[in-house]
Structure formats: C-alpha cells, structure tokens
Sequence to fold (390 residues):
Amino acid sequence: MWLLDRYLLRELLPAFLLARAVATAVLFVDKLLWLTSLILRNHLDLLTSARLLCYTLPTVSSLTLPIAFLIGCTLTLNRLSMDSEYVVFKAAGVSFYRMLAPLIAAGMVVYALSSVVLMYVAPWGFQGLQSLFFEVARERAYYHLQPRTFNEAFKGLVLYVERTVPEAQRLEGIFIADTRTNVSQVITAEVGTLETQPEALRVLLHLERGTIHRVSPPYKRYAVLQFGQYDVSLDLDTRLARQAREASRPRELYPTEFRAEMARRQALGQSAHDLELYWHKLFALPFASMIFAILGPVLGVVQPKAGRSSGYVFGLGAIFLYYIFLTASDALTDKFSFFPAVFAAWCPNVCMSALTLLCMRRVARDASPWEVAWLWEGALHRWRRQTTAA
Fold:
C-alpha cells in the first residue's frame, strides 16, 4: 500500500504546484496594475520595486494553498479515472476510502502551511508594505525640500529652506508657516534635521535656535517664544504616506497583536465583533484544505465520457460554491450583530462538509455523485404508496 500512497502523492505534487502558481497569478493580476502605477508614478528604483513585489506576494497568496490543493486533488483523481487506473485499483481491492488516506495526510500538511501563511507570513507582508510606503514617502519628502522654494508637501505647513546639506540631511535658514490649528504660528530656526520614528510612522523636524510667533485671533493676542530645541511633526501629504498611516486591519496583525487589540477594545467597551470573526477565520479558512482532501477526489472520479476538462470545471465550481458560502456568512454577520462569529466563520466549512460526505458515500458505492434523481425518488415512491393505499 505504500507504493499506492507514493504514487498518488507523486501525481498530486505537480498538479498542486501548477494550480498554486496559476491561482497566485490570477489573484496577483488584480494588484499588478496598482503596483505598476505606484512604481512609475513615484520613480521607484529596482531594489525598492523588488521589495514591493516581495511584500505584496504574501498578501495575495495566503488563500491560494487550499484552492490549489482542491484543484490538485481533483486533477489527480480525474487523471486516474480517465486513464482507467481508478478502475484497476478498485478491481485490485483498493477501496475509495483507502485512496483518500495519503491525500488526507497531504491535507494536514497544507492545513499547517496555510495557518502559518495566514497568521504570520501575510501580516509580515502587510506590515512590510506599510514600512516601505513610509520609507519612500520620507525620502521623497526630504528631496522635495528644494532650497529657496516654498514647499507645500506637508499638510497644513508651508516650509521654506535657505540651504540644504543632503549628505547630513541638514537644513539651514528655516521658515515655517503652521496653520494646522486655530492658533496660527510662524516658526523660524537656524538649523534643522529630519528624524524618523519608524515604529510610529512619523517624521519629525528637529529645530535648533529659533523663534515662534503665535497669533490667537479670537483673543487678539500675539506671542513670541524663543527656543533652543523644538520638534515639529511633519504630516506627509502624499499617497504613499496616507497608505502607510491607514489603520491596521485584522489581516495585518500577528496573533499576539490580534489578541492585544481585542483586549484593548473590550477594556474600552468597544465592539470587537469584526476581530472575533476574523480570529475564527484564521482557523476555519486553512481547515478547508482538510475538506478539500476528500472533496477533490470526489470531484475527480468521473465517467470517461465527461472528458479531461471536467476536473477543472468541477474544481472551479466547488471553489465558487465555497466562496458563496463565505460571502453569505459575512453578509449575515454584517446585517445581524447578534449572529455568532464562530458560527459565521465555520458555517462554510460545515456546509461543504455535509456536501462532501454525501457525495463521498455515493462515490464509494460506485454511484455517480451528480445523479440528482435520488433526491426526490424516495419522496415520489412514498407518495405513490400512499396514493395506492388510499
């Protein structure tokens, strides 16, 4: 039987890898136009573009492992069925349930890989994108500071620099008009340097030896303050900076950060329903690969007249059906706040499991899983019996 297991896994691996590459490419196409526009608009160099690509790939491929595994299992059994090898295995006494053993073992491996990607690799990609956006925005902000030019790249600020020292990122002869608050102020300083706080995604302009002129129109007051050191927070008003400052979404958080955010919301009395839903999805979505380890072979066992393309069609149909279940459960959660998050996350798996077990029994009995007449044959037979008795 070990030879059978090795043979099935050897057939599964190429189909799985091919389906993985195709699924990732299909999902990546949606991001390709955005990436190209981002690279060309911001004149990103080759290294930065490569980093952008590396961070983006995990964000679009976290869900392709279960999808690719379903397609791989379907194509494997479809190929065996079309070449009559499935019939040979059955004639040799190998049951359909025994053929599922190596595929279920492979499903456990895919389940573990999917969990790691969804919980750790994808957040690494999202957070890496945020840091990269901030880094590029910061560098572009500095090089936008042309000497003897009024610069408006910073939201609410007009900044004028008399002289720049690029190698030290040093600014001299600084004039700033700050209108971000009701109290307007003009700041002048002899020297300034740019300091970054990557953990807070913020850029500070550290000023030395300057004066602050403040005007409060409602109170008709004018004040002059002198300082030795003063920090001004720069709000990078660019597309990249806005993307870097966006609030973290659940899929961008590591499990430890996720639990901390849930605890923080609960302590403040805020709703954490969306976090609870995604927390359960972290376990429910990878578990779909265990269901697909059975559903894939069920879809792959077809009659020869169905053709080799039937494996692709049935596999894509199953993915579409699973997506419908996911969408429906999310819609119920959004519309009804009392809808349990754990049920919404696991409902698609429950529905697909029921369908998979139903079809698996028919395939194991050498009956076509797509023969739907049996759904009403029992009811029709009972109705005829009652009519005859009456």
Confidence is low (pLDDT under 50) at residues 372-376. Residues 154-235 form one domain. The CA atoms of residues 261 and 267 lie 10 Å apart.
